[in-house]
């Protein structure tokens, strides 16, 4: 008898104990071999397949595992390897060179990494494939086929996951120069045969179902992209003898792309019903009689326990309309974006735990929902538990704080404005700080060395007494200030040694947040974050950063920037409550940060940086929703930062994204200075700031901090000089792309010395005076 299938689109690969992270970093630092790394990776894959099998998942993903990133894996699989990496013969070394750059002094090897940017509106970063004007492709499916062989022992139900050809091309970029007028989509005809060959190989292996991820189907597509979809989907559907194909859309609604998807000739369509529940009727109405639907009902982007009754009602609707044989239940997207297992949490408290589901629990929810599809009124224990948890959360006194409600009602227009407009503020700030032309600074964090991390780990474990930890951090901060002075930086930072993570640190100090011990989620490569959980109204019980900033300022005469994470970024990088609009939660965070900003000023801090790297990532995927989001996101930043005097300089910082299309909003944020990542894209972004005539001061990043490579004085000076030609030199700052926490001290010191030298070169070119 056929029944509703339980399926999964992808599983976190980092490992319950972040085994992959550790194996990667150990391999990169040459402590272990490639074989050790591959062994760890194979062990993780085996574990994940086996636990999906145990959870009763009928379609188990294979090929979603990656040593670094699934988009990079796809580029390698189709042979899209830019020329500069082809001299590297060892495939693994070449793979990591594309991901992280490679600088080997002995062998004269010095190649920067490919660009990295955010995966849709998530905090995961992918490597941007780069195509040449005469791009050709060649299939190398060894990774995927090898993993399928490994997974055979799992016992059937394997569903290979491929990033689809159109999304692959839409996420790619053309290499710089010589490609005028060409866009990656021009290569679709050459790329499709790689997928055709691959489908034939998968059919030979006896694979029954293949999942083709096309998340770009949830975006607004122009005619060229729609035509590309028509071509690609029709051709793949027409492959002779192919396995059955599931087209996976996620992160939003298909809307006007639904006819493309439903008419694709594929055998199943996955839809995200967490982000876009309202699309169900249209989807069911559009499905041809041969097509299955995969209902994405368990949230792959958040950690709240599923409302099983609501999900069950949706499944019933689908079953009644098209019959159980054509229905699959699934998470809304890959589970890559949620932590591995709630079982890793000992300190959360049973009430909070009962509200949550991580990846392992979500698999169980999918199974339970599939099993209950035949029942009209499910009453098994999982449903009873889900109802009880929901009722408990809705009624919990932990969630509401009447003081926060009062403060929210007391917000007035005046709280969103600095006293004077930027030109008047800039004049006062120039008089106050007397900085040289091209002032040099950094973004905030300095290396989080093994010593810093392990001191924190022992302090957390209770084996390092608080005063000793405090003394250790003060010593790190003191040494950091001394190093910055020796390097010759103009505006200093305290180094953020006390912070585990720029969001988690604040989450731990604010009321309304819970934090996990082991809730790691991959951010890029081996780097993970532990997003805090916002479960209730947010408020600040006491000052959070004032002590560290004021301590650092006592150590130097140069200005030390106060360092805060902005409201939108705290929101975006947390798991957010789903019982009130995100904007209300964001304004609550902004109110708490406003108190901190004012306290910093009162404590004598003259420059305050409020980082908003996630503001672009928070942008809704559909343009019509942008205006509303940008209104409240900008308001939240202004609410947080407008409580200070004109001569207090507000900085902000952004990284990882294309900011071209939100420049107006960035300007409205009205920060006195913005530092922004530009170096990986070789300052392409700066063109947007020029075109928009960005009015305030700006520090275009001149040094890619994601790579251990030390940039030369000359290359950074070139970047500055090109920036100085298009923007007034009087408004330019000099800084790396982002914080330096992931780097080691020797390379940081060498790079910053070169950066300070580069600023001197630029000053010689443009004059020493900072007037204007
Ligand atoms: C700027 N970025 C950030 C994003 N999101 C955030 N939430 N935070 C960010 O900073 N998104 C965009 C980018 C992504 N970039 C990065 C960059 C770097 C990291 C990173 O370094 N992550 C660390 C983990 C950071 C952390 O929280 N560390 C904790 C725990 C450390 C730990 O693992 N301790 C060990 C013991 C260590 C020892 O004994 O030596 C343990 O407990 O077992 C801390 O410092 O206390 C990473 O290592 O992945 C992330 C995103
Ligand atoms: N102040 C932070 C910003 C990162 S986006 C840092 O320097 O790490
Ligand atoms: Zn940054």
Q: What does this entry look like structurally?
A:
- There is one protein chain.
- With 772 residues, this protein is α/β, with parallel strands linked by helices.
- The chain folds into 2 domains: 381 residues, TIM Barrel, CATH 3.20.20.210; 333 residues, TIM Barrel.
- Helices cover 42% and strands 12% of the residues.
- The chain has an 8-stranded parallel β-sheet with strand order 1-14-13-12-11-10-8-2. A 5-stranded parallel β-sheet has the order 19-20-21-22-23.
- The model has no long low-confidence stretch (mean pLDDT 95).
- Bound molecules: the ligand CN1c2c(nc(N)[nH]c2=O)NC[C@@H]1CNc1ccc(C(=O)N[C@@H](CCC(=O)N[C@@H](CCC(=O)N[C@@H](CCC(=O)O)C(=O)O)C(=O)O)C(=O)O)cc1, 2-amino-4-mercapto-butyric acid (HCS) and zinc ion.
- It comes from Nitrospira japonica.
- Its EC number is 2.1.1.14.
- It holds the Pfam family Meth_synt_2.
Low-confidence segments, given as residue ranges, are none
Backbone CA Rg: 26 Å
- By CATH reckoning, the class of the largest domain would read Alpha Beta
Strand content: 5-15%
Topology:
Blueprint: E1 5-6, H1 19-28, H2 34-54, E2 60-62, H3 70-77, H4 91-100, E3 102-104, E4 109-111, E5 116-118, E6 125-127, E7 130-131, H5 142-151, E8 158-163, H6 165-171, E9 173-174, H7 188-204, E10 209-213, H8 223-237, E11 244-248, H9 258-262, E12 268-272, H10 280-286, E13 292-298, H11 308-322, E14 327-331, H12 350-355, H13 359-371, H14 381-395, H15 402-409, H16 422-433, H17 450-461, H18 466-487, H19 504-509, E15 511-514, E16 521-524, E17 527-529, E18 533-539, H20 546-554, E19 561-565, H21 567-572, H22 582-602, E20 607-611, H23 626-641, E21 649-654, H24 663-669, E22 673-676, H25 684-692, E23 697-700, H26 713-726, H27 745-766
Helix pairs in contact: 1-2, 7-8, 17-18, 22-23, 23-24, 26-27
This protein binds ligand LYWDKB7T, 2-amino-4-mercapto-butyric acid and zinc ion (ZN).
């Amino acid at each position: 008898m056929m029944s509703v299938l339980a399926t999964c689109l992808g599983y976190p690969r980092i490992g319950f104990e972040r085994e992959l992270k550790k194996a990667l970093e150990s391999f990169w630092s040459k402590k272990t071999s490639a074989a050790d790394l591959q062994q760890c990776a194979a062990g993780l894959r085996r574990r994940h397949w086996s636990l999906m099998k145990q959870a009763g998942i009928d379609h188990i993903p294979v090929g979603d595992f990656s040593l670094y990133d699934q988009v990079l894996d796809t580029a390698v699989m189709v042979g899209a390897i830019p020329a500069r990496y082809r001299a590297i013969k060892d495939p693994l070394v070449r793979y990591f060179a594309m991901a992280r750059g490679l600088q080997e002094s002995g062998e004269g090897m010095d190649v920067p990494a490919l660009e990295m940017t955010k995966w849709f509106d998530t905090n995961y970063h992918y490597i941007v494939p780069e195509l040449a004007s005469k791009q050709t492709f060649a299939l190398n499916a060894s990774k995927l086929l090898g993993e399928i062989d490994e997974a055979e022992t799992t016992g059937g139900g394997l569903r290979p996951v491929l990033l689809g050809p159109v999304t692959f091309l839409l996420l790619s970029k053309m290499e710089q120069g010589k490609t005028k007028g060409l866009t990656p989509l021009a290569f679709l005809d050459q790329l499709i045969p790689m997928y055709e060959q691959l489908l034939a190989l998968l059919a030979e292996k006896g694979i029954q179902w293949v999942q083709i991820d096309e998340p770009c189907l949830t975006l607004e597509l122009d005619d060229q992209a729609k035509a590309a979809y028509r071509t690609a989907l029709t051709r793949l559907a027409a492959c002779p003898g192919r396995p059955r194909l599931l087209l996976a859309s996620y992160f939003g609604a298909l809307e006007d792309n639904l006819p493309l998807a439903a008419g694709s000739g594929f055998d199943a369509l996955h839809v995200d019903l967490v982000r876009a529940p309202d699309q169900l009727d249209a989807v069911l109405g559009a499905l041809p009689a041969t097509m299955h639907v995969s209902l994405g009902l368990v949230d792959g982007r958040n950690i709240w326990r599923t409302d099983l009754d609501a999900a069950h009602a949706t499944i019933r609707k689908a079953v009644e309309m098209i019959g159980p044989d054509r229905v699959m239940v699934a998470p809304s997207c890959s589970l890559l974006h949620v932590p591995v297992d709630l079982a890793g949490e000992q300190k959360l408290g049973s009430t909070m735990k009962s509200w949550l589901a991580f990846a392992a629990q979500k698999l169980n929810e999918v199974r339970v929902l599939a099993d209950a599809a035949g029942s009209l009124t499910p009453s098994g224990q999982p449903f009873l538990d889900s109802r009880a948890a929901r009722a408990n959360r809705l009624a919990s006194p932990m969630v509401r704080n009447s003081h926060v409600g009062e403060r929210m009602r007391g917000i007035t227009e005046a709280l969103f404005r600095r006293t004077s407009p930027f030109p008047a503020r800039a004049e006062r700030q120039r008089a106050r700080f007397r900085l040289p032309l091209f002032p040099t600074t950094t973004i905030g964090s300095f290396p989080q060395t093994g010593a810093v991390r392990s001191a924190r780990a022992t302090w957390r474990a209770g084996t390092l007494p608080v005063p000793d930890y405090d003394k250790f951090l003060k010593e790190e901060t003191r040494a950091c200030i001394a190093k910055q002075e020796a390097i010759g930086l103009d505006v200093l930072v305290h180094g953020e040694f006390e912070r585990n993570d720029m969001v988690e640190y604040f989450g731990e100090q604010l009321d309304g947040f819970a934090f996990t011990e082991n809730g790691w989620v991959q951010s890029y490569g081996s780097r993970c974050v532990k997003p805090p959980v916002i479960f209730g109204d947010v408020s600040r019980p006491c000052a959070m950063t004032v002590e560290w900033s004021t301590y650092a300022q006592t150590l130097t005469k140069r200005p030390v920037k106060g360092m805060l994470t902005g409201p939108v970024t705290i929101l975006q990088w947390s798991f957010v409550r789903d019982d009130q609009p995100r904007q209300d939660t964001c304004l609550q965070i902004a109110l708490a940060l406003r108190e901190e900003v004012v306290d910093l000023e009162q404590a004598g801090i003259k420059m305050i940086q409020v980082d908003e790297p996630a503001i672009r990532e928070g942008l809704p995927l559909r343009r019509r929703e942008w205006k509303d989001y940008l209104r409240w996101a900008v308001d939240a930043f202004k609410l947080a930062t407008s409580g200070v005097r004109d001569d207090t300089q507000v900085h902000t910082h952004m990284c990882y994204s294309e900011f071209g299309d939100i420049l107006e909003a960035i300007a409205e944020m009205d920060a006195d200075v913005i530092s922004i990542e530009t170096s990986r894209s070789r300052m392409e972004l700066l063109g947007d700031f020029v075109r928009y005539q960005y009015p305030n001061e700006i520090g275009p990043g001149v040094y890619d901090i994601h790579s251990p490579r030390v940039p030369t004085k000359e290359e950074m000076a070139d970047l500055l000089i090109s920036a100085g030609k298009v923007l007034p030199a009087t408004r330019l700052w000099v800084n790396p792309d982002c914080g330096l926490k992931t780097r080691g001290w020797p390379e940081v010191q060498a790079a910053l010395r070169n950066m300070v030298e580069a600023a001197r070169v630029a000053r010689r070119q443009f004059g020493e005076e900072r007037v204007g």
